């Protein structure tokens, strides 16, 4: 103890490194064990030969990627054409995630703005209220949502009761229910980063803009949005990415009628399809797509920053 | 201090002081805790139970390295065959199970384990469908209720989210063999399913009972015991015995290869073949035991339940068959196409 206390970081770069490098070991270990190893394993598995009913043979094969992209007919004897099955599943998942993200943004931004503009002492209470539902397990919240929106659930009973509708709104087992579920699951991931950005916003800038005859709309577009943009982007990513792989909401609220990326992968490992290399390949393709999207964003952000 | 350490050691080593232990890999909520306690009281063997929620999940986990950590597991019929083919099962001699003679003779020469080399019957039941009689009063004696439903039931049907059972029932409905490799037959099967799906509200296996009780679905493919539970929970549902046929399934306790406590595993299997103990499982799970002489120990409600007492006109059930790899690929493709 005493030895460390004697050496202050100010004594020079070398001793600083001597202390910090070992302290970083746990970080490297975590990244290695929980990020690099599993992803590497998955990448390797996606190029192995499928063992019937789960498991892999250690033999190189492109079969998993072939299955994803090429359709050779039910009996594998037709000339290969582009396989639309999995692209359709990806497209459906991406679309659901985009809608959920937009819903979260539409509700999350005003909410975050509202909280950030409350007096400092009451903001904590509002944030606390946002987090309360998230003390409950996601599965239970999703099932509860299903209870609320089912044909003879309270929402439909209330709407019927006040005479707004004649028959129950069919909500359960629709795409709308899935989007509602995703929106509900991930809303705080949108609110919190935007709140953090808006809280730091200097409202004197808005006043200055108003002094210079900027309309409220122009102020929002030209001053506020560029400044809180990092918060919005972070929120969108935090909602979009987990929505993309979600399968609780699609299964429980959407009736599991159609595969989503998440349930397709799940079925390869736990379900009767038992095709580990294909499951790994789908995961790798999904990861690649997300990575490309992030890279494109990073590039445009860098350009925007330079301009 | 020493005393405390000793106590701690005793607590940690607790099971070791008993007559050994037993590691069971079992379905969730499929054995009453009182029965496990009774076994421990009789034999002094401490029982640890880990659970799984599908045959495939159990297989995956055993193949991924859990083999050698468990003594017994409870796979379904087709999975016994798969596990045997994968070399995951140990076998026993009949003399090792004094109660072997209690097994109902009709369940000894089963297609998935002829002569019962590695497995004993646990519970069996059937898979067909149930209909809410408040919604639909017509005849429900045909699988057409699911695959070509009447107007009242369209859009209100839940189907099991289980490839094997859905494709088997669909094949039975169309009078096709399972594990067919005939292109025309498979095409017809696939087309029929895609058309039928337009009338289905949802796919769900573990939710199959709840959707009937809550009224989300007015009809649903379901296991007979699950339908009995839906009825017990107040849904006015009737379990159907369709004329085309139905799926029969059986869960079996198997002796796993490399079982760390083989002796205790056999004791446990023998214990479960006692009629009184087999009946305790049936009273809990509401299916049917594969052991003879259980009737005196059954609850009245179970004994007279319409779900486990088929009418004389009921069809014989078919097990879901295990196809070879090339054939299975065709059925996998039909299933993916149905859910894409």
From TrEMBL, chain A:
The chain crosses the membrane at residues 23-48, 94-115, 127-149, 176-198, 231-249, 276-298. It holds the Pfam family BPD_transp_1. It is found in: Cell membrane. It is a multi-pass membrane protein. It comes from Tabrizicola soli. PROSITE patterns: ABC_TM1. It comes from the Bacteria. Its main location: membrane. CDD domains: TM_PBP2. Belongs to the binding-protein-dependent transport system permease family. CysTW subfamily. This is ABC transporter permease. Keywords: Cell membrane, Membrane, Transmembrane, Transmembrane helix, Transport. Residues 90-297 form the ABC transmembrane type-1 domain.
From TrEMBL, chain B:
Belongs to the bacterial solute-binding protein PotD/PotF family. Residues 1-18 form the signal peptide. InterPro entries: SBP (IPR006059), Sperm_putr-bd (IPR001188). It holds the Pfam family SBP_bac_8. Its main location: periplasm. Gene3D superfamilies: Periplasmic binding protein-like II. Keywords: Periplasm, Signal, Transport. It is found in: Periplasm. Required for the activity of the bacterial periplasmic transport system of putrescine. The keyword Signal applies. This is Putrescine-binding periplasmic protein. It comes from Tabrizicola soli.
């Amino acid at each position: 103890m005493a030895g460390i206390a004697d050496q202050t970081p100010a004594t020079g770069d070398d001793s600083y490194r001597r202390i910090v490098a070992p302290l970083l070991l746990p970080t490297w270990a975590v990244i290695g064990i929980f990020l690099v190893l599993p992803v590497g394993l998955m990448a390797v598995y996606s190029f192995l030969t499928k063992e019937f009913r789960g498991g892999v043979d250690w033999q190189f094969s492109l079969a998993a990627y072939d299955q994803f992209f090429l359709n050779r007919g039910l009996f594998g004897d037709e000339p290969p054409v582009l396989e639309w099955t999995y692209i359709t599943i990806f497209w459906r998942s991406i679309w659901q995630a985009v809608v959920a993200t937009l819903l979260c943004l539409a509700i999350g931004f005003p909410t975050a703005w509202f909280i950030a503009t409350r007096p400092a002492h009451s903001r904590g209470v509002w944030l606390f209220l946002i987090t309360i539902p998230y003390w409950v397990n996601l599965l239970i919240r999703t099932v509860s949502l299903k209870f609320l929106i089912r044909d003879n659930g309270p929402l439909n009973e209330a709407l019927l009761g006040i005479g707004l509708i004649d028959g129950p709104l069919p909500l359960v087992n629709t795409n709308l229910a899935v989007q509602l579920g995703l929106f509900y699951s991930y809303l705080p991931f949108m609110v919190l980063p935007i709140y953090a950005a808006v809280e730091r916003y200097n409202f004197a800038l808005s006043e200055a803009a108003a002094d210079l005859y900027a309309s409220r709309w122009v102020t929002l577009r030209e001053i506020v949005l560029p400044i809180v943009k990092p918060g919005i982007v972070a929120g969108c990513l935090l909602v979009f990415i987990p929505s993309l792989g979600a399968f609780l909401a699609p299964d429980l609220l959407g009736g599991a009628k159609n595969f989503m990326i998440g349930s397709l992968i799940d079925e390869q490992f736990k379900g009767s399809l038992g095709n580990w290399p294909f499951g790994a390949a789908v995961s790798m393709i999904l990861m690649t797509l997300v990575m490309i999207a992030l890279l494109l964003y990073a590039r445009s952000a860098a350009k925007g920053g330079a301009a | 201090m020493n005393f405390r350490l000793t106590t701690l050691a005793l607590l940690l080593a607790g099971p070791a002081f008993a007559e050994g232990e037993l590691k069971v890999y079992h379905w969730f909520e499929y054995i009453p805790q009182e029965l496990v306690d009774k076994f421990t009281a009789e034999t002094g063997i401490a029982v640890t139970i880990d659970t799984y929620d599908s045959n495939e999940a159990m297989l995956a986990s055993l193949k991924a390295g859990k083999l050698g950590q468990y003594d017994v597991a409870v796979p379904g019929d087709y999975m016994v065959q798969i596990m045997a083919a994968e070399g995951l099962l140990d076998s026993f001699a009949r003399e090792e199970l004094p109660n072997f003679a209690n097994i109902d003779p009709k369940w000894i020469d089963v297609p998935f384990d002829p002569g019962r080399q590695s497995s004993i019957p646990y519970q069996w039941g059937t898979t067909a469908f149930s209909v809410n009689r408040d919604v639909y009063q017509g005849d429900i004696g045909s699988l057409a209720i699911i695959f070509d439903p009447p107007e009242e039931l369209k859009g209100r049907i839940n189907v099991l989210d289980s490839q094997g059972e859905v494709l088997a029932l669909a094949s039975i409905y169309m009078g096709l063999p399972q594990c067919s490799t005939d292109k025309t037959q498979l095409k017809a099967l696939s087309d029929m399913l895609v058309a039928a799906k337009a009338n289905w509200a949802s796919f769900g296996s573990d939710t199959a009972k709840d959707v009937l009780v809550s009224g989300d679905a007015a009809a649903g493919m379901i296991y007979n015991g699950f339908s009995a539970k839906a009825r017990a929970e107040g849904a006015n549902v009737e379990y159907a015995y369709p004329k085309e046929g139905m799926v029969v399934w059986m869960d079996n306790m198997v002796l796993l290869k490399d079982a760390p406590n083989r002796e205790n595993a056999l004791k446990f299997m023998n214990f479960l073949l006692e009629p009184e103990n087999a009946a305790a499982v049936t009273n809990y799970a509401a299916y049917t035991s594969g052991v003879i002489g259980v009737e005196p120990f059954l609850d009245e409600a179970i004994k007279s339940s319409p779900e486990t007492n088929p009418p004389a006109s009921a069809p014989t059930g078919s097990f879901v068959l295990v196809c070879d790899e090339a054939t299975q690929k065709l059925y996998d493709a039909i299933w993916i196409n149905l859910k894409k």
